[in-house]
Specification:
About 40% of the residues lie in helices and about 15% in strands. The chain is of the alpha/beta class. The chain folds into 2 domains: about 5-150, Rossmann fold; about 170-395, tm_1862 like domain (pyruvate-formate lyase- activating enzyme), CATH 3.80.30. A 6-stranded parallel sheet has the order 2-1-3-4-5-6, sandwiched between helices. A 3-stranded parallel sheet has the order 7-10-11, sandwiched between helices. Strands 12-13-14 form a 3-stranded parallel sheet. Helix 1 (about 5-20) packs parallel to helix 5, helix 8 (about 235-245) runs parallel beside helix 9 (about 265-270) and helix 12 (about 335-345) packs parallel to helix 13 (about 375-395). The mean pLDDT is about 95. It binds 5'-deoxyadenosine (5AD) and iron/sulfur cluster. Iron/sulfur cluster (SF4) binds near residues 186, 189 and 258.
Length: about 425
């Protein structure tokens, strides 16, 4: 259901497109970070295109620049400041609008830095005010004022924001926002706020609409999807079962679940479904029970391995992907060996590997036993080598089997090959 606030923003979209009438205007967008940010950018693009801007892939050829930032690790932040440096030069030559938003903008030390060192930025918007971009842009264009539109309280859930999807077969649908877990290394709970679940009917209607448009694959998104909490005790497993019934949708995925909330009803919902992918993402973070404790992950090495076994017992063809952080404060050689041990035991299909990055304001940043960069990098390389060394052998099990994949068209490079975009 479209909310009142979104109606108001649609009026601002109209106003901006009136101001822009008759002009050929382009936008350039840079999206950093996770699938949730990509999904937010699809909404940003949906609004911006309705305001009369068309996409430019060339950084030197646009009128409106948008950066949708991520702050989960330091390197993403550095990239943003690099981009702002580039935009400064463009702004000196041309009359452009620069809007910067997303997770990084929820951090006070960052917005202060932008105001001080990058004062040419026109609009700063946060994760809870993304839907107000049309109003912010209107005010910038008409009044030439600098706008900082950030709130600290958890944003409401706004339904009905225009969306321009980046793919016409595979779509991501956010089911919940925020996170209550406060893993000690993670900045997300500070910048995305507490958990808020969308109403089940809003989610199901969106997916039914996508199915009608010809979408085949749906990824349910959330910082912690399996703590989805709809009205009247409607849980993640209920949602999985209802999405499963939607005709036309053939593949269902979800990211990211938390191992502690991976209850039997969720496992049974996957087991009962022919559409839910058997590649299941179960973030490990560390294989060491003592590190898991200081990470505040709320499970042990054994409980993680048990979960994998519980899933495999009910769903024998299940395979797994995971996230692992190396070099968390206090990680000893023995702790790291535990991580390698879990990697050997589970035989992951895919591992998203991260070097621990200190995030201001988190509990882990205040820990005294930080690991030297050199050791972190060495461990990262060892983990990578272990994983990569197993890929060939791990893939042998697929030789001669038939697997269902979503193809989206013919390859640009080889017309005899079918391919998917991402
Ligand atoms: N340093 C390194 N990796 C991190 N992640 C989250 N916070 C940090 C951090 N401070 C990783 C986790 C998470 C993924 C999205 O990013 O593995 O699952
Ligand atoms: Fe961060 Fe942990 Fe929440 Fe994931 S579950 S977003 S890692 S705090």
């Amino acid at each position: 259901m479209e909310t009142k606030q979104i109606k108001k923003q649609r009026e601002y979209i109209e106003k901006v497109s009136k101001v822009n009438e008759g002009k050929v205007l382009k936008y350039y967008i840079l999206t950093m970070g996770c699938k949730l940010n990509e999904n937010d950018s699809e909404k940003i693009i949906g609004m911006v295109e309705k305001m009369g801007y068309s996409e430019s892939k060339d950084i030197n050829d646009a009128d409106l620049y948008i950066i949708n930032t991520c702050c989960v690790r330091e390197n993403a932040e550095e990239k943003v400041f690099g981009k702002l440096g580039e935009l400064k030069k463009i702004k000196e030559e041309k009359n452009i609008i620069i809007a910067i938003g997303g997770c990084m903008m929820q951090e006070e030390h960052i917005t202060k830095k932008i105001k001080k060192s990058y004062p040419f930025v026109d609009v700063i918007f946060g994760t809870h005010t993304l839907h107000k971009l049309p109003e912010d842009i209107y005010k910038t264009i008409t009044k030439r004022e600098k706008i900082k539109d950030i709130i600290d309280i958890d944003g409401e859930i706004y339904e009905g924001i225009p969306v321009k999807r980046s793919n016409n077969r595979q779509a991501s649908v956010t089911i919940m926002y925020g996170c209550n877990n406060f893993c000690s290394y993670c900045i997300v709970p500070y910048v995305r706020g507490r958990e808020r679940s969308r109403k089940k009917d809003d989610i199901l209607n969106e997916i039914k609409g996508l199915a009608k448009e010809g979408y085949k694959e749906i990824t349910l998104l959330g910082q912690n999807v399996n703590s989805y909490n709809g009205e009247n005790n409607y849980k993640f497993s209920n949602l999985l079962k209802d999405v499963d019934k939607i005709e036309g949708i053939e593949i269902i995925r979800f990211i990211s679940p938390h191992p502690k909330d991976f209850t039997d009803d969720v496992i049974e919902a996957i087991q009962a479904s022919k559409k839910i992918s058997r590649l299941i993402h179960v973030p490990l973070q560390s294989g060491s029970t003592s590190i898991l404790k200081t990470m505040n992950r709320k499970y042990t090495k054994e409980q993680y391995l048990n979960l994998i076994n519980r899933i495999k017992t009910k769903i024998p063809d299940a395979v797994f992907s995971t996230d692992i952080i190396v070099g968390f404060p206090g990680e000893t050689e023995k702790d790291f060996e535990d991580t390698l041990d879990v990697v050997r035991k589970v035989n992951f299909e895919q591992i998203f590997m991260f070097i621990y990055s200190r995030r201001l304001g988190t509990v882990a940043d205040r820990m005294e036993n930080q690991i030297p960069e050199e050791i972190k990098h060495k461990r990262f390389d060892r983990l990578k080598a272990l994983f990569e060394g197993n890929i060939e052998q791990n893939n042998q099990k697929y030789v001669g089997t038939m697997q269902k994949v979503l193809v989206e068209g013919y390859s640009k490079n080889n017309p005899n090959m079918l391919t998917r975009k991402n």
